[in-house]
Design a protein that fits this description.
73% helix; mainly alpha
Length: 275
Amino acid sequence: MEPMQAIILGVIQGLTEFFPVSSSGHLVIFQQMMGIKEPVLMFDISLHVGTLVAIVLYYFNDIIRIFKSLIRSASCRMGRQAGELSKAESTDIKMAWLIVAGSLPTAVIGFGFHMISNVLFSSLTIVGISLIITGGILMGTRWVHPGKDSVSDVSIKKALLIGTIQGLAVMPGISRSGSTISAGLFLGINHETAIRYSFLLSIPAILGALVLQIFTDSAGAGNVSLGIIATGLVTSFIVGYAALSLLVKMVQKGHLYFFTPYCFVLGVVALIVGG
């Protein structure tokens, strides 16, 4: 793999991991265009690590606040600290439980799909159909009235449903961010909470997928240097952080459906090329 290929794939991963157009679908398409028939394990992991770091840094304050609230809650229960939890601390703990609940169906479904990943990620036809489905989901958000539910209003049942949808988004062409944010909006969750929950929920999902890939993929590191791996990681991080910042603003303005035409067009192209 050449450095320019690493940069291109890093840019693609950084943009499409956050823009609701499916990173996996794009990587399948562009790797085939570049003649990369078998994705190299360590390079593929480096791209996802780059975007994972972008999420962690963007929501770093939220993550730290959640951990502090959990520690204080545990201390209060064990009698080490006096007093009651504040409303903000209770909200952070509720978010932690929602993340746990949403992660359960994601793990089960994701593990199941991993068994047939070779079939899913080698078919442009599947990618094309999935991209068109993603476009339809995003289009639906255009007519959704702004929800009012904040973190404290979101039920465990809604978290389980969003987690199930996140698990199904392992299909190449189905956007994880697009489907989970859209699901939140369809369920009456407000824009800010929907996107915040979507990306906090993605952290354990991405970590789990990387661990599963490391222990079950026999492809190994391949003939790729550490310089190429670092190039892909840094590129996906920088581009990913910028893309996440832009997407948050677009969702808050109710403009998630702006990505619909792109998904439709790329989906049709993938169907034609893979047909």
